[in-house]
Specification:
This protein has a single domain, classed as Alpha/Beta hydrolase fold, catalytic domain (Rossmann fold, 3-Layer(aba) Sandwich), CATH 3.40.50. Helices cover 34% and strands 13% of the residues. Helix 2 links the parallel strand 3 and strand 4. The longest helix is centred in the last third of the chain and has 13 residues. This is Alpha/beta hydrolase.
Length: 213
Amino acid sequence: MKIYVVSGLGADFKVLERLEFPENCELIFIDWLIPEKNEPFHAYVERMAEKIDVSEPFSLLGYSFGGIMVQEINQLKPAQKVVIMGSIRSDKEKSKFIKTGEITKLPRILPTGMFNDKAANVYSVIRKLFDPKNPKILQYFRVRDPYYLKWSVEKVSEWKFEEIPNVIQILGDKDIVFPIKYSKPDYVIKGGTHLFPATKHKEVSKILKEVFV
């Protein structure tokens, strides 16, 4: 079974590198693409889906914003299984913080310069949202193109989606980005912050081995 994997907003696959899967699974990572200027979201999803070979069975796995992306890809190229970690099944599960960004359109009007490497305010927000107790948090955030980061924040806040049946959701009970109180996940990682795939990899690996049998 091939599993196509999309990591989180700005994150490479280091955050997922300690996860273990059944031996019969072949992981294929889909790297984030840099959006083209004024590219429609559906066009971007189509480009992200190009790597997927539909001539044989496959599954999709997404973390954080990657969870949103794999659900969109599944609309174009249906998978046998769709698993999302630290993500949401629909816009109804957005936190009040994200909904505020949607209503005010604040992400759209923020200057791209706010998302550069040296922006201390962005660094502090990342630390606060993802895992305030993890001093090495930025090692997981390698995709730092300012236009891509601003675009991604906009798309998360604007995302509209009806829940798809049978999407398997794994959430941490200490996640601030996508608080568990707005969702009804299939699996809960006790003490898991938004970075639970890295910090609670043993618990997550056990679940993945059950799901991808």
